[in-house]
UniProtKB/TrEMBL annotation:
Record's protein name: Co-chaperone DjlA N-terminal domain-containing protein
InterPro entries for this protein: DjlA_N, TerB-like
Top-rank lineage group of the source organism: Bacteria
Domain Co-chaperone DjlA N-terminal residues, every copy: 27-141
One Pfam family from the record: TerB
Length: 158
């Protein structure tokens, strides 16, 4: 009798698809912040989407299916978030100082993927960096590094 009951409960969960990423997976927070920066200026360029996919694929060694799943979970999390704090507080706990600074660099890489930096993107990264505990000096350094990686000329110290 107990075996039948246990078998029944196992059959109920057996066919339920499990999400590829747990809700508290830091990769979701990283991708959600990237999406928020991409959308900050109101225009999501193809180059930014390509850059985001490339960065996530390389950083996390994901195949296309896993990358699509990560982006789907991240879009869902982003749509439910009211601000950056949900993601930055989680990442501040899980990433060390160097990793948080590198994340700011990744965000700048996405901004410069389309060759331009808007005031809204700049503001979004400033807020995210501040919440992550990344100094203004390090944020500007990461911006300059991303600018160089993108092969663009300087655009001021904003």
């Amino acid at each position: 009798m107990l075996d039948r009951l246990q078998s029944f409960f196992q059959s109920l969960t057996q066919f339920r698809p499990q999400p590829a990423f747990a809700p508290n997976d830091p990769r979701i927070a990283v991708a959600a912040l990237c999406l928020q920066v991409m959308e900050a200026d109101g225009v999501v360029h193809d180059a930014e989407q390509v850059k985001l996919r490339s960065l996530l694929r390389e950083q996390y060694a994901l195949d296309e299916n896993a990358l699509d799943a990560l982006l789907a979970e991240s879009r869902k999390a982003e749509s439910e978030a009211v601000d950056y704090f949900r993601f930055t507080s989680e990442l501040k706990r899980t990433l060390d100082e160097s990793q948080r600074q590198q994340l700011v660099g990744v965000l700048w890489d996405i901004v410069y993927a389309d060759g331009n930096r808007s005031e809204m993107e700049d503001h979004a990264i400033w807020r995210i960096a501040d919440l992550l505990g990344v100094s203004a000096r390090d944020r500007v350094h990461e911006r300059q590094e991303a600018l160089a990686r993108a092969g663009l000329k300087g655009d001021g110290d904003a």
